[in-house]
Specification:
heterodimer, A: mainly alpha, two-stranded antiparallel sheet, 12 helices, about 5% strand, globular, B: six-stranded mixed beta sheet, four-stranded antiparallel beta sheet, binds adenosine-5'-triphosphate, binds magnesium ion, ATP-binding (chain B), nucleotide-binding (chain B), ABC_AA/LPS_Transport (chain B), ABC_transporter-like_ATP-bd (chain B)
């Protein structure tokens, strides 16, 4: 039972991260492999603040603000120009973030990470185990999903869709395209911050490996499988891929090859979807 | 009285002089047709006026204000909007949303309002849909609100471009070849549309190749050739000018 709850909680956290990636990839159309790094910034921010005695809601709020700002700063060059080269820039962001996580020892605990992150407490209610935490993570996913849905059906969502279709025509209509994109990027960063805050407090231990390039690529894979540009895609992908990982763990194979086998399977799935179903299970064509 | 003044504008692309020391003024509520052979600089002068290209020398002033280096969105807010020769519709959006996105009103166009004031945003959306629908009716596309722009006929697409440019609320409207490629019926609809815009009091600048249509809609004509503004005058005077006729028809233009 706990095993299953844990799977749901992690899939929910990754769904929130997938929404973050979806906003950049599916909605603005810039391909990011740095969303795990942004989530990492959120996780470290939350952990450090909580270990210094800050209550969870405030720590999470700070993580959201910091991640929104960092996501905007790191995507700004791509938002100004056409976004084709952003995958390179975002790769750089990811590497820099990982290097900072490893080397800023005083703050991040270096390669050994931070452990003993306090249990979440909101207004006297504690969330010590999966049984309680799932309420929090589900609530966060619901709020993020509702936010995404409201965003997309608003005039702003239509504006974003129009920018994807024909940016020049949007400019000609007197709209500020850069401002609109910065808004999405901030929301995307905020989502990664929420995911990071949940991850740090649920696992209660974080290290640089939790937010490295593999995790960023994993999220992109989840989004490709689930389908970009839709809310359903951002949720189906993480649940499906993490279920596959769980099955692998159950199958009786030597533990040394579980990791590589999982990478291999993810890689094959990614290529297969790119070739035969680029819109994913429930997405729209990029 | 004058509301657009272009002074000594020059723009080069490599060795090509797209606009060569062009100067002219346009009075409010007048319809001016821009004519000239292919590559004459007609679209380029539109691009200079709307800020899509910046001239090397010269200035553009609108209602007494220098806008030569103003941002594109500032120009739209001041009342200058355009269509494109190659339409640039949002093909995958409904006709209604094509117009809605272009409405002057910025309400509902930011993420915080959209997410944290959902009921207010829903009300804004309803109001904007009504405004956009009214504009579609105005251009004769009232029956096509929910159709994807990409699914419309070419004539309907061109009318949708008119609705979009009207949505900006601009009073100086630049139409780049609004009648090109239209069959007889759609052509008459478009000419009628242009007359309706004139009656609304819009100041119009229109690239138009067909001399008969120029005579039907223009108060004034600007004749461009190889980047030079060769002449400015009434349609009758320009069409009667033999020199200009030789330049224009000597190029093997199809009319
Ligand atoms: N962005 C650009 N880069 C390079 N050359 C350009 C550019 N825009 C225009 N030109 C050149 O400038 C000249 C004028 O072009 P412009 O588009 O203004 O002509 P036009 O009068 O609109 O012609 P048409 O009737 O074919 O639309 C042409 O020789 C064109 O090739
Ligand atoms: Mg042209």
């Amino acid at each position: 039972m706990n095993y299953f709850l844990s799977f749901v909680i992690l899939a929910e956290i990754f769904s929130i991260l997938a929404v973050s990636t979806n906003l950049l990839m599916g909605i603005i159309g810039i391909f990011s492999v740095a969303q795990a790094a942004i989530m990492g910034v959120g996780a470290y921010t939350t952990a450090i603040l909580m270990m210094a005695g800050t209550p969870f809601p405030l720590a999470m709020l700070a993580a959201v603000a910091v991640c929104a700002a960092i996501n905007v700063l790191s995507s700004l060059p791509a938002l100004r120009l056409a976004g084709d080269y952003f995958i390179i820039t975002s790769f750089g962001t990811q590497l820099v973030a990982t290097a900072v996580f490893i080397n800023w020892q005083d703050l991040t605990g270096g390669a050994s990470g931070l452990s003993g992150i306090p249990v979440v407490e909101i207004a006297g209610a504690g969330f010590p185990t999966a049984r309680e935490f799932i309420v929090l993570s589900s609530l966060c996913l619901i709020l993020v999903a509702a936010g995404f849905w409201l965003l997309m059906r608003s005039p702003y969502g239509r504006l974003l869709h129009a920018i994807r279709e024909n940016e020049v025509a949007v400019v000609a209509a007197g709209r500020r395209v850069l401002r609109a994109k910065v808004g999405v990027s901030a929301v995307s960063g905020a989502c990664a911050g929420i995911a990071g805050a949940l991850y740090a407090t649920y696992i209660s231990f974080i290290d640089p490996m939790s937010f490295d390039i593999h995790v960023s690529v994993l999220v992109v894979t989840m989004l490709v499988v689930g389908g970009a540009r839709t809310l359903a895609g951002s949720i189906i992908g993480p649940f499906l891929l993490m279920a596959i990982a769980q099955l692998l763990a159950v199958v009786d194979i030597p533990s040394t090859i579980v990791g590589p086998a999982r990478q291999l399977i993810y890689g094959v799935i990614l290529i297969a979807f790119m070739l035969w179903r680029p819109q994913g299970i429930a997405g729209k064509r990029l | 009285m004058t509301n657009l003044t272009v002074s000594n504008v020059t723009k080069r692309f490599g060795g090509i002089v797209a606009l060569n020391d062009c100067s002219f003024s346009i009075d409010p509520r007048r319809t001016t047709c821009v004519v000239g052979p292919n590559g004459a600089g007609k679209t380029s002068i539109f691009n200079v006026i709307t800020g899509f290209i910046t001239p090397e020398t010269g200035t553009v002033a609108f209602q007494g204000r220098d806008i030569t280096r103003a941002n594109r969105h500032e120009r739209v807010r001041q009342g200058i909007a355009r269509t494109f020769q190659n339409l640039k519709l949002f093909e995958d959006l409904s006709a209604l949303d094509n117009v809605l996105v272009c409405l002057k009103d910025e309400a509902g166009n930011d993420p915080l309002t959209a997410m944290f004031r959902p009921f207010h945003t829903a009300a804004v959306l309803r109001r904007k849909k009504a405004e956009a629908a009214a504009l579609l009716v105005q251009v004769g596309l009232g029956h096509k609100t929910d159709a994807l722009a990409g699914s419309l006929s070419y004539g309907q697409k061109k009318l949708l471009c008119i609705a979009r440019v009207l949505a900006t609320g601009a009073e100086l409207v630049l139409l780049d070849e609004p009648t090109s490629g239209l069959a007889a019926g759609a052509l008459d609809t478009m000419v009628e549309m242009i007359h309706a815009l004139k009656r609304q009091g819009k100041t119009l600048l229109i690239v138009e190749h067909n001399t008969q249509i120029v005579q039907r809609i223009a108060d004034e004509v600007l004749f461009f050739h190889r980047g030079h503004l060769m002449a400015q005058g009434t349609p009758d005077a320009i069409i009667a000018d033999e020199e200009l006729g030789r330049i224009y028809f000597g190029k093997g233009e199809v009319h």
